[in-house]
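Exercise: predict the fold of this chain.
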Amino acid sequence: MIPFELAEPRTLKAALKLLDGDDPSVRAFGGGTALMLMMKAGVFQPTRLVSLRGVEARYSKVKGAEDGGLSIGALTTLSALGRARMVKTRAPVIIETLKTLSNVRVRNVATLGGHLAHGDPHMDLPPVLMALDAQVVTAAAAGSRTLAVADLYTGYYETALAKNELISEVIVPSQAGRRSAYVKLTTRAADDWPTLGIAVSLLTDGRVIEDARVVISAATEKPLRLAEAEAVLRGAAVDDAVLARAGEAAAAEAELNADAHGSAAYKKELLRVYAGRAVRKALTA
């Protein structure tokens, strides 16, 4: 391994000053779970790593907002997120998703901000947070900005973040009146990389779906909302026929990729069947 500098700033402001928007070999990290694998594989060779573990504790906190939403510091570990009572009360689908997200050793170290910023389309939380209409707050030397998680991903392992820009906070709006679910389909263990992930969030009075968000991941280059499937569900009273039409619309709309987890045709059939099951799961959540 080529030698590199390791910086351990005590504030986020100091960390941002150590980043270089013109040098991709300078990288910040929280848990470093994905970064270390990339370095071991020789995919990434840093000249400087900036550890965020010592910055202000507020970036590792989960807080409730007055409107019923959540404010989650980007350095919150996935294990801490999974134990947060506020999250269980206000966005329980996040807790359920974390139960099969990798393993406890990874969750004890990996951070929410790193999980989102890595840009891997196989990650479980991006589609869930998209379905919840969540936003990320970023920090850079030039200032901060807020963007929807839906706008964070621009391509395969690509995000809208600049090289000297970090995620500092994740905001989940109030989910009052909504029911959500995540269905993770794997070819091996339940905590393995998903072959296909489907996140659903429904605004419903218990009989009619007033609004629907359907997001898929893992089989696509980036998390993707399925507008046609959402249109089928919107304004509908759920029955088997409606769910079948939603599944057909999802399968027709999505362009899926083949990989070691299955062919595109196989994944399309999974989507056709499990889109409706994800809706059923959300309605009974």
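Check your answer against the key: The CA atoms of residues 69 and 173 lie 4 Å apart.
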